[in-house]
Design goal:
Two copies of one chain form a homodimer.
Chain A (H helix, E strand, L loop, with lengths): L6 E8 L2 E8 L2 E5 L1 E6 L9 H6 L5 E3 L1 H6 L3 H6 L3 H5 L5 E3 L3 H7 L1 E5 L4 E4 L6 E4 L1 H11 L3 E3 L11 H25 L5 E6 L5 H14 L4 E3 L8 H11 L9 E3 L5 H9 L4 E4 L1 H7 L2 E4 L2 E4 L19 H4 L3 H9 L4 H27 L2 H12 L5
Parallel strand pairs in A: 4-5, 4-14, 5-6, 6-10, 10-11, 11-12, 12-13, 13-14
Antiparallel strand pairs in A: 1-2, 2-3, 7-8, 8-9, 15-16
Helix pairs in contact in A: 6-7, 7-8, 11-14, 13-14, 14-15
Chain lengths: 376, 376
């Protein structure tokens, strides 16, 4: 049996940026942390051992996908998501709400929840705050997320407030359900909404803190508002979030998004960018992104990163990777996904080291010099 | 620099079956050996470290695919195929002839060779015995194959003899070219043809032995003639092949084909079966093949082989593998290919152990009891 409680220990800080450790019965998570996305019970094109070898302490699973296929009750009968996907370490699951709204058909939002048809087979489902928690508990997620509504930006302030208030009511219902159903050591995070309105973000945060959660996410960003606007929202939201609780910026992002958000006090991230881009031939490198399918790499004998400990970054030439993508070989997405996840985890490790050393400004200056990206 | 010569050392025998070791400058190959197929410079959906971990001593590369993409001259400029694909151990390449005839467009066979158009981009090429050897030397293959013609069975005896005689003339030209171009320690094998005619197989073998090769392949089988007919051809061909040279049955086969051919004195095999089947959801197991996509596996918590040392066979439930294939995830083909290659290498290791112990008959009886397949 697993034992131990969920906790967050704040470590070194550098300006608004923080290091810390989230402890769970399944292991610790060093923050700032990047969580690779394992949508359907697998970080696409990756073996779990290699996900771990990149330095990932935790992966994310998608409730929407898993509830539809293979089904939460089935995963539970098979021993839970950790056993199912052969990943014994912490797993965070989202609530399913975001993907219901973006992927499903004939969805209908009410106070009760969201009814929808599966994008896979057209079957009808209802996702409520209570059902989302039930599913996340069946999966056995260590960190669970409240059901919320996540409107696009721009949105009128009235509509944004109405949506935020619905999410806040769902937060309370989620917590009540979680207290009924969850196992010891599991945690439920609330999600701050309010689009890009400072007053709404503050109001949302106040309501969530009144309910009380062991961690707070910032939702409703990275939905098309642009990096500067996202940073502006973080600038007026993060300072009010509880210092002693982890802060999770959902669905973010590209390396520059992450560096800028860490500088503003965010602790946790998830994004499909490294895995999705890897499958499509885009590699992140210390000098910025490269598209390995470009003809310029056909005869390039150098690896993506000769100094890396990661076999995918070190042991294969760009010419070979180029060939694999041109020939449509599985190994291309496998190696580029692995490389990108290593790049992301190295970035997080570099941020943690810099914060601990009080040298985040130097790190950010170096990041800008290498990539050309301005993040503060 | 690599050093050492190519040699074959015959070890224990059991009836017609033989154990042995092929030595090359890049490492030894324990026989009977199965060579995973790395068509386009990658054993599909496999990392080279994992190919090695299954027990493979050698992989096969396809001259036809590699000459068209990325191109033999390019691979040579990048350091050769071993460096290119990050496989430092022995590689055997075929001549390209078989796939020119099965895959290319507008092919035309003459005494000189085969002219054809690429199936990828329609570009025009000419493959002669000399060009095939040139390509195989550019790739840096440790074991190279003569260009041959490989007619389907059934074929009239006159036509089969004419084709076999062409292959024999090409064998002589291949050897002359190889002696000009090859590096120390590389070896060229001749290929016995003659369809399913005993007199033609004998005539082919005699002509090849007159030219003289360090190894002899049996070509033109597994082309639709059926297992019994293939075994009949082996029965009248193998006994006349030189005892002190390795014997390679090209393009074979399923496990029962291999067990039956080993019992008849064959030392080397290659086949796309384990990799191709793995990508399509078919797994070989000790109790025969299973299609993991079948609904019966949706809730099956057992792995494909709990006693295996191979992570793919041991650490993932059939239910999970079923889910991965249903969801179209990369990890499904990755794990099933790995499992199948492990199954094949375990089969070869079992055959070698049985031959060394003089207990091949027991091994074959056990194989029949487990799989229902009769092979002798």
């Amino acid at each position: 049996m697993l034992s131990g409680a969920f906790s967050f220990s704040l470590g070194a800080t550098d300006g608004a940026a923080r290091c810390g450790v989230i402890s769970t019965p399944r292991g610790d998570i060093a923050t700032p942390a990047f969580m690779p996305v394992g949508t359907a019970g697998t970080v696409k094109a990756m073996l779990p051992d290699h996900v771990r070898a990149t330095g990932a302490d935790i992966v994310l699973g998608n409730t929407y996908h898993l509830m539809l296929r293979p089904g939460a009750e089935r995963v539970a009968a098979l021993g839970g998501l950790h056993t199912f996907m052969n990943w014994p370490r912490p797993i965070l699951t989202d609530s399913g709400g975001f993907q219901v709204m973006s992927l499903s058909k004939l969805r209908k939002l009410t106070e009760e929840g969201v009814s929808f048809q599966s994008h896979i087979d057209g079957s009808k489902h209802m996702l409520t705050p209570e059902r989302s928690i039930e599913i996340q508990c069946l999966l056995g997620a260590d960190i669970q997320m409240q059901l919320d509504e996540c409107p696009a930006i721009p949105i009128a302030e009235d509509a944004a407030r109405e949506s935020m208030l619905l999410s806040a009511r769902w937060a309370a219902r989620s917590k009540a359900a979680f207290e009924e159903t969850s196992a010891p050591g599991q945690a439920l995070f609330g999600i701050v909404q309010g689009a890009n309105y400072e007053t709404l973000r503050r109001e949302s945060l106040d309501k969530l803190m009144e309910i009380g959660f062991p961690g707070y996410a910032i939702g409703g960003l990275a939905v098309g508002e642009g990096r500067d606007e996202m940073f502006r929202v973080l600038d007026f939201t993060c300072p009010h979030m509880p210092r002693e609780k982890p802060r999770y910026l959902m669905g973010v992002g590209k390396p520059a998004d992450i560096v800028g958000a860490v500088a503003r006090g965010v602790d946790m991230f998830d994004c499909v960018a490294p895995t999705r881009s890897g499958r499509h031939g885009q590699a992140w490198t210390r000098s910025g992104p490269v598209n390995i399918k470009n003809a310029q790499f056909a005869d390039d004998p150098t690896p993506l990163d000769p100094a890396s400990d990661c076999p995918a970054s070190r042991d294969y030439s760009k010419a070979y990777l180029h060939h694999l993508f041109r020939a449509g070989e599985y190994l291309g997405p496998m190696l580029l996904t692995w490389h990108n996840l290593q790049y992301y985890q190295d970035l997080m490790a570099g941020l943690r080291t810099a914060i601990a050393a009080g040298s985040l400004a130097d790190f950010i200056a170096g990041f800008k010099a290498e990539t050309g990206e301005t993040v503060v």
